Amino acid sequence: MEETQPLSQSELPLCDSLIIWLQTFNTTAPCQDVKQLTNGVAMAQVLHQIDMAWFNESWLSRIKEDIGDNWRIKVSYINELLQLILGCAVNCEKKQEHIQNIMTLEESVQHVVMTAIQEVSCIMITYLKRALEELQEAQAEKEELRQRCQELDMQNEMMNEKLDHLFVSEKTNDGNNIINACFLYARLEAAKDDYRVHCEELEKQLIEFQHRNDELTSLAEETRALKDEIDVLRYGLSKYNYVTSELLNSHFSIPLFYQGFLEISLYRLEEKHEALLKEKERLIEQRDTLKETNEELRCSQVQQDHLNQTDTSATKSYENLAAEIMPVEYREVFIRLQHENKMLRLQQEGTENERIEELQEQLDQKHRKMNELETEQSKERIRELQQQIEDLQKSLQEQGSKSEGESVSNLKFYYGNSVAYGLSIIGPVQKISELEAALQKKDEDMKAMEERYKMYLEKQLAEKERRIEILESECKVAKFRDYEEKLIVSAWYNKSLAFQKLGMESRLVSGSGTCRDTGACAPARSFLAQQRHITSTRRNLSVKVPATTAD
Q1: Can you tell me the distance from the alpha carbon of 411 to that of 103, in angstroms, rounded to the nearest whole number?
Q2: What CA–CA distance (Å, rounded) separates 494 from 488?
Q3: Which of 163, 205, 199 minimizes the C-alpha distance to 182?
Q4: What does the pLDDT look like over 133-168, one tens digit per residue?
Q5: Within 10 A of 194 (CB to CB), how many other CB atoms are there?
Q6: Which of 302, 240, 290, 275 is nearest to 482 (CA)?
Q7: How many CA atoms lie within 13 A of 300 on its CB side?
């Protein structure tokens, strides 16, 4: 006895679903699993219930029970046998009852059984195509045999004519001719018998081919009926696909429109935000340039004032240099300008923060409106689908008594598909909630990024202010140093003038004394001669004075 072959993982669901369908026939033989089906008793009883005229009691009595496992029925062919039984059930006279029993099963079992029916129909179509091809070949062979029979009949007539001619000619011929004619007649009789036997065989083959032709014509009629059913199913499927596509288009057209509108508004808000940022940068640059020009003007004005006051402030002490460089009124003006600059900066930052908050609130409102519209559209779509399912169910109940079994099965099949489609549409509600959570998370990330951006911006502004203060302090130090050098030069110049005056006075005093002692005075000089003499002596003193100070 051969061992049963195990089923593969892909064949188990089909086998289990077909076993569940077999259990609806309530057979006396058990059919709970594959092992109970290997003896063939349960399948034979199901076939007897499907068609009692063909699978009658005499046929059923030949199926023996209590013989153990039948090695001829292997487990690997259980699916094919069950599919063939299913094909017999949906193509018999009571197919409407069997289809109704199938529709009472679970949805998953219905789906598997429907796929099995489609596979069986495909197999039958291929078988019928092959049968039509064989029918055409048989008809061609029939024509060839008919032509062959006609040729043999013609040959037989020709032989009979030759035989008659020989009978006529043997009367006139001599004895040898008669003997030859007898031999020829014997050969012709033998050939005639052979041809007769061959004709009988051909007639038998012709009868067999006629029976086969009748069977193939019946199969061709069945194929035409199946093709008509397939055309009806295709028409229904195309109509169902058109309805589903229309429903999907009506479901997604409005949210896509609102989504595009919200994307356009978001893009405009982003453009406004970028324009505000550019305007802010431009104002900052303008403020920096104004600050620089203000500082340059102030420094130039201070230098001009101090250059004008060098002659009057030369005798003051070095401790009052800072007060002389930056007068009180300029210091007050500088402090007031700094305060105004700081207030303007704070005001600008406040307006920018308010504008950013307004834009963020508008963006949040747009997102909330978009989510509300999507949820409303999905809920309306679910209600419409539920209403369509109820309408389909009512139409099925109304047309159940009028339509035939095939239309009832098709409508129920479409109803199952519409129910599955409705269940698949309910999924977007959960997807919308997930999208809302993701959108909320994205908003939180945007807020965190905005806070980080503000913090970085504040750090950069603080760093910039610190650098500005450092540069201002360096500029002040450089100005103090320049002014100090100028004061030293002016003090040195004034000191040299003082020494020059002292030298002139000493020379004048010494000259007047010598004149009194000698009694001879220098001749009187004019005003221009005296000035030239003073300038020449000043030059000599300017050369000699640094040496005296260095000592």
Answers
A1: 11
A2: 10
A3: 163
A4: 888 888 888 888 888 888 888 888 888 888 777 777
A5: 10
A6: 302
A7: 6
